[in-house]
Design goal:
- The protein has five helices and four strands.
- Strands 1-2 form a two-stranded antiparallel ribbon.
- The protein is 47% helix and 6% strand.
- The protein has one domain.
- By secondary structure, it is mainly alpha-helical.
- Strand 1 and strand 2 form a beta hairpin.
Length: 179
């Protein structure tokens, strides 16, 4: 290969081994396949357990009592959250957030599949934004921001398509020692 210069020195690459195209041997992927299958089995078991608990909750109407009776602990979010935001104890689980926002106060959700397992959610409090704070100036500002964002997305897409079609060679390493 050619010599590539960087700040900390120079590099020459040499091909040591070439693996032929094809299916990986089972020994190389065994552990990954085993972990994937175990995760699937855990999720299936969690689904069955969540359905069983939800049936009990529908009968009694008391999520806390059903959880305690079955050896589970109820957890409460430490602070209010928005869709897509990090939730303490849950993480950034989009399905959890959306399901929580679809509930009415006091309502208990059916089992929700998340990234880490299944959840039964009881919504205790919901804060709705105050629409009176949205005056015309704020609406105009938001519209301008959305328009600028969309214009930037279109421009970025156009630049990406031009770069894909262009035949560009990078020779900066010949002129600059930092490359």
């Amino acid at each position: 290969s050619p010599i590539y210069s960087f700040r900390r020195g120079m590099v020459i690459f040499r091909v040591i081994n070439v693996k032929p195209e094809g299916i990986q041997p089972f020994e190389e992927v065994r552990d990954r396949l085993l972990n994937d299958r175990l995760s699937e089995l855990r999720m299936e078991k969690a689904k069955v357990e969540a359905d069983r608990l939800y049936a009990q909750v529908k009968e009694s109407g008391d999520l806390a009592a059903v959880a305690a009776r079955n050896g589970f602990t109820m957890q409460t979010t430490k602070r209010p959250f928005k869709i897509g935001e990090f939730i303490s104890g849950i993480g950034r689980d989009y399905h959890f957030s959306v399901a929580a926002f679809d509930l009415d106060v006091g309502e208990i959700s059916p089992p929700i599949e998340g990234t880490k397992g299944y959840y039964l959610i009881r919504l205790d409090e919901k804060t709705v934004p105050d629409s009176s704070r949205w005056d015309d100036a704020a609406k105009d500002r938001i519209m301008r921001q959305l328009l600028q964002k969309r214009q930037q997305e279109v421009y970025d897409g156009w630049i990406a398509s031009v770069r894909e079609r262009a035949d560009i060679k990078d020779f900066r390493y010949l002129y600059y020692s930092d490359f």
